[in-house]
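seq:
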Amino acid sequence: MNIVILDYKTLGDDLDLSGAEKFGKVIKYATSTQDEAKERVREADVIIVNKVKMTEDVVENAPNLKLICETATGYDNIDIAYCARRGIRVANTPAYSSACVSQVTVSMALSLITHLNEYRNFVHNGSYQKSVSANMLEPIYHEVECLTWGIIGFGNIGRKVAAVASALGCKILVNKRHPVSDFECVDLDTILEKSDIISIHCPLSNETRGMIGKEQLEMMKKSAIIINVARGAIWDEEAVANAILDGTIGGMACDVFSKEPLPKEHPFNKILDKENVILTPHMAWGSYESRTRCFNTVLSNIEAYLDGREQNFVK
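struct:
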């Protein structure tokens, strides 16, 4: 069996991928463009992929292809309909990153709410050393146990964030397609209007694409912060940048972008110098432990396929 890994660099250079060799010949590529992928999949029985788009014009070049393993929970880079017509199975890796994405989400929220950037910079730029006061207490910050945390999307990650936020004393509001009984579930408008902290954890779909735009941002409290660790296309990035520049919202943090890495023309480049902005390079999912779980799940998915067992197949 031929296994082709199209973009192993997305899993990190430090990860041991040798476990795939027990299933057959493994060909690894650090990265692949769309054109390169068309050629590289020709002999593949199994493709392991993260970011490369598995469109029809790529997949049709792999006549022997039986299985695509996505090294992520989301699989919007794969043409599921075409794979179904071809009888190609697609497996994802659910829940592997819940711990680290929730950890980064909470870290972002606490940093913004506490204005750690501003306080850190006051010392690091020498201002504190020149100050006549032992304290600097501006900008004003608030204890999170006084705040409401709105969670959009309530899968494994959203639920874990809710558990941590609850432990910190926050009131939790949840926006979820199918309501749950253990948290207060409300519509999106209520989340936007009532929350001091909003974090986004839903998958990208036709329903969620662009769901946060100028109108939605204007519903938020001027002091509220919003965090996106889901998908960049879930919100209007230009509208978010303008909301920061105009003071419509109190702050934002983001680990995901509609185009990665950020192109020069991306609207977020206009807000790089803002203290109330945290932008990170799509790293929230990628603790060593999380990446190891992810690849081990891929190996388990291949084994399940070979054994004829249903496991993590998305179609």
